[in-house]
Amino acid sequence: MAKARHSRLDCAPGCAVEAAISLIDGKWKAVILHHLQDGPVRFSELRRRAGDVTQRMLTTQLRELEADGLIVRQVFAEVPPRVEYSLSARGRSLSPIIEALRVWGDANMDLFQRRRAA
Fold it and tell me: How far is CA 32 from the centre of its chain?
């Protein structure tokens, strides 16, 4: 089931942040965007890089990112068919944010490790 999207962005203060977060929320979207920073990636390679994501969840997240205009899906007319995913211009505009999340995550990895141990 698809999640509800913002129909208006002119609501109370904070809604622009809420709208932006809604586009990259969830466990896998920011991870996918991170792995597309260096250029086009095939589905199987994305799945390998992401780790524990299921095929179904990765497909769902990729479809949502594509529908939101953050990534581009390119199908090549080959046998077997080849599909690559890359960042759109709008998706590339998120690069500084994704990089900031990576830097913050590196600096605070102990929080993640404590959570996993609990």
Answer: 4
d(CA 29, CA 68) in angstroms, rounded, equals 12
Q: Please tell me the distance from the alpha carbon of residue 95 to that of residue 64, in angstroms, as a whole number.
A: 18
Helices (H) and strands (E) in the chain, counts: 7, 3
Q: Which tokens in the block code for residue 19?
A: 């709208």
Tokens of 100: 């900031």
The Cα 118–Cα 116 span in angstroms is 6
13-66 tens-digit pLDDT: 668 888 888 888 888 999 999 999 999 999 999 999 998 999 999 999 999 999
Say if residue 106 is exposed, middle or buried (CB neighbours under 10 Å; 0-12, 13-18, 19+): exposed
pLDDT digits (tens, 9 = 90+) for 77-86: 999 889 999 9
Gap between the Cα atoms of 71 and 89, Å rounded? 8
pTM of the entire predicted model: 0.81
